[in-house]
Amino acid sequence: MTLPALPEETFRRVLCVVAHPDDMEYGTSAAIARWTARNIEVGYLLLTAGEAGMPNPPEETARLRAAEQQAACAVVGVEHLTILGHPDGHLVYGLDLRRDICREIRRFKPDVVFGSSFEVQAPWGFDQADHRAAGLATLDAIRDAGNRWIFPEQVDEGLEPHSPRWYLVPGMGPGATHGVDVTGEPLRRGVESLEAHGAYLAAIPGHPAPADFIPGIAAMGGQAMGVEHAVLFRAHDLEARPEF
Prior knowledge:
Layout: E1 13-18, H1 28-37, E2 41-48, H2 58-76, E3 80-86, H3 95-108, E4 112-115, E5 121-122, E6 125-126, H4 129-145, H5 152-156, E7 166-170, E8 178-181, H6 185-195, H7 198-202, H8 210-225, E9 230-237
Parallel strand pairs: 1-2, 1-4, 2-3, 4-7
Antiparallel strand pairs: 5-6, 7-9, 8-9
Helix pairs in contact: 1-6, 2-6, 3-4, 6-8
């Protein structure tokens, strides 16, 4: 069965919540390039500065990775980038993390939130701890953001409750429900966005060039969708009636 396309006509503003600089660039940014080209507003919320990801001193790494992330955002048309100060490698699921994500949902008012998976095992092996904490906190913060009695101090500051319609997570593997056709220019820009993290990639021994593996991943997604290249998602319509 061919996977359907995401209903982009219902998207106006998308908030992507991930743990580190570069997390969006391992494939998903190609979909972002398509959306921004269609005048869908996209914001990135990075929960850490990725300061533990390189051999350099953490303060130097944080500055470098922020600059590389800004460059990656520019490639795919993302103008809203927020980087928080949670400790890289020590991201902890809890109220502090939920509060910060909830604040950004209420501020940015997206109708779509993209978050990382919170499952222990990913298609490529065991997922990293920060990714799991970020994914679970994002899921819970979506519900928090719509309830004025959760983190009410934010409402007192003028950040009204907000409930996104869509919740997306990466769809690699058999759980994918929808895809985004990124054939052509979106894929090219997606590859270029990962290339923008040049210093970070150079610090990883044996890391392949983005052009050598991102198109292959997108080609596998394209097979599931019946196009040349695609990014796959698990999509949840939070306004849909539950089935009993």
